[in-house]
Design brief:
By secondary structure, this protein is an all-alpha fold. The protein is 61% helix and 2% strand. The longest helix is centred in the middle third of the chain and has 38 residues. The N terminus is likely disordered. Keywords: Membrane, Transmembrane, Transmembrane helix.
């Protein structure tokens, strides 16, 4: 029986073939073959094409070119636009709420901006760079620039994930399609900061995927991935206070990243210790570059909230609008939270999905005591009764089914739903994932996301410690393991985003506050599907090959030649 040639023979044969190709393919020894150059140019052309398609899709969906499709102001728009000197180009120069999307603004002063303290958001940094000194300004320009940033990030993903081949491109398609879906991209044409969080989230996920897909010695791809992680965590995590979990994930990714390839243990050489210590110091420096601005950003947000008494409003939404409601459903009373029974009529007034009732109670009239003490007492009660915390979290997960936020008008004055049928169709995957998340009042979504959070690390631990295998020195993680780890990161972000949304403002406008959590949930499910498709396809191919071998009296497991491949034979 013939035996397989040794690995040394394979290496020698491959080396001689590569040398011959290098010498004969380009006319000089040591240069790359023409086929490799063509492949490289194909990947670069594909990256440019994907970037252009992403940008064009967002421009067409949001109305940068064509009919405007965005998100109308719910009253929070002045946080972004007013400090930049933008006044709505309407007869009253006021924010018209639910009437329609206002995308044209006059540049000037004269509008009360609520507070002397500016609301901290990274989207204003981009807005201030685009707003002229006088004249008019259109949100189309801001949407065009921000969507171009998204397209560049997705285009970079083509080059970073090419080592994974087809699974990598499918994973990139999942992330890209989830970002350009109208339910997400409509916020590019809005006075909100959500779009900055979306761009940052996409950059963070693609950067983390690039670190998983490429080996340590692929320094260009790895450093590009690190740059995307830094940009995504900073731009997305500092877009609003609720996005701070992105900072935590970015720090965790940087701490787990090996920047240079390790060398053999030689303690007497200075180069060994420099190669060991300096990359770790660089990683710690990058983490500090994220954490220090995040702390300052959070402090500025707290100052802004105190000046406008927003702490009273959000505490009322959380304690009375959410926690007290779940306590009563659990058979408890307001006395369990240390609140008087006279607060009873206010319990659940801002409950989702009753979004038609927009009259917010005057919480300041009731909360004449310490807000921090109220939240601390409520947190202590939730710690003693974890079933209340579970109900709050599952309600937040269930709210992802309302990711389209239909209570916010999507068209400008004179527009209508008849112009957006294709946009509604593109949201079908979100509707499907939202329905799964909402099943069992969020219980199914909680189990699904929790399972995905655990599945990736378990898969990695099984390969790394039990089977004693892991990423080879010259290769990154396998597509299945890498995509499951990335799905775990996305699922964890979905859970934390929903938890932060409920903790911050209760059930008030919950579908808008868990909007980014819906994106992470959809991406996690899609990535898990792509990761599972590879093993399933290989298993089916093996079964098909064994059936063909049985019919042709071949040994089980033998691979047929090209002339008698089983794909021409029906099983």
């Amino acid at each position: 029986m013939a035996t397989r040639p040794s690995s040394e023979a394979h290496i020698a044969e491959a080396g001689s073939a590569a040398g011959a190709a290098g010498a004969g393919g380009t006319g000089s020894a040591g240069s790359r073959p023409k086929t490799a150059e063509k492949a490289s140019w194909r990947w670069k052309a594909g990256a440019v094409l994907v970037a252009v398609l992403t940008i064009g899709t967002v421009w067409l969906v949001t109305g940068v070119v064509g009919t405007v499709y965005g998100a109308a102001d719910n009253g929070d728009g002045p946080r972004l636009t007013c400090p930049s000197g933008l006044l709505p180009d309407t007869p009253s120069q006021r924010w018209n709420g639910q009437i329609g999307v206002v995308h044209e603004y006059q540049v000037g002063e004269g509008q009360d901006c609520w507070a002397d303290v500016v609301y901290p958001t990274t989207r204003r940094l981009l807005l201030n760079a685009l707003v002229p000194d006088t004249g008019t300004f259109s949100l189309r320009k801001l949407a065009a620039v921000e969507s171009s940033m998204l397209g560049v990030v997705v285009g970079c993903g083509v080059l970073l994930l090419r080592r994974w081949g087809r699974p990598g491109m499918c994973a990139l398609a999942v992330i890209g399609f989830a970002a350009v879906a109208p339910a997400m991209s409509r916020f590019f044409m809005s006075p909100f900061s959500e779009s900055a969080g979306l761009v940052g989230s996409v950059a963070l996920l693609i950067g983390a995927a690039g670190l998983l897909a490429n080996p340590v010695r692929a320094y260009a791809e790895r450093f590009t991935s690190v740059a995307l992680v830094l940009f995504g965590a900073a731009y997305g995590g500092l877009a609003k206070q609720a996005n701070l979990p992105l900072i935590g994930v970015g720090v965790a990714v940087l701490l787990c990243t090996r920047l240079v390839e390790p060398r053999p243990f030689r303690p007497r050489r200075v180069a060994y210790w420099a190669r060991l210590v300096l990359p770790r110091l660089v990683s710690l420096g990058m983490c500090a570059a994220l954490l220090v601005p995040a702390a300052q950003w959070y402090k500025a947000g707290e100052t802004w909230s105190r000046e406008l008494n927003f702490n009273e409003l959000t505490t009322g939404d959380f304690v009375l609008g959410a926690v007290a409601l779940e306590v009563q459903r659990n058979g408890g009373s307001l006395a369990d939270l240390g609140l008087p029974e006279s607060f009873g009529p206010l319990v659940g007034m801002e409950e989702w999905p009753d979004q038609d009732r927009k009259v917010q109670p005057d919480w300041q009239h009731y909360f004449k005591f310490d807000i921090e003490e109220t939240r601390a007492r409520t947190a202590e009660y939730i710690a003693r009764n974890p079933e209340i915390g579970y109900r709050l979290l599952t309600t937040g997960i269930a709210a992802t089914q309302g990711v389209r936020n239909n209570y916010l008008a999507a068209y400008e004055f004179g527009g209508g739903p008849d112009k957006g049928k294709i946009r509604i169709t593109m949201d079908t995957p979100y509707v499907a994932v939202g329905a799964v998340n909402a099943a069992g009042n969020g219980a199914v979504g909680f189990l699904l996301l929790s399972g995905l959070t655990v599945l990736g690390p378990v898969r990695y631990a099984n390969q790394r410690f039990r089977r004693r295998i892991g990423p080879e020195p010259g290769r990154g993680h396998t597509p299945t393991t890498g995509l499951l780890l990335l799905a775990a990161v996305s699922a964890a972000l979905a859970l934390t985003t929903c938890a932060v949304a409920v903790w911050g403002d209760g059930y008030y406008e919950l579908t808008k506050h868990v909007w980014l959590g819906a994106f992470f949930a959809a991406v996690a499910v899609g990535l898990a599907g792509v990761a599972g498709a590879g093993p399933v396809r290989r298993r089916l191919s093996r079964i098909r090959r064994n059936q063909w071998n049985e019919r042709n009296d071949r040994p089980a497991g033998e691979r047929p030649g090209r002339q008698d491949a089983p794909d021409r034979v029906t099983a």
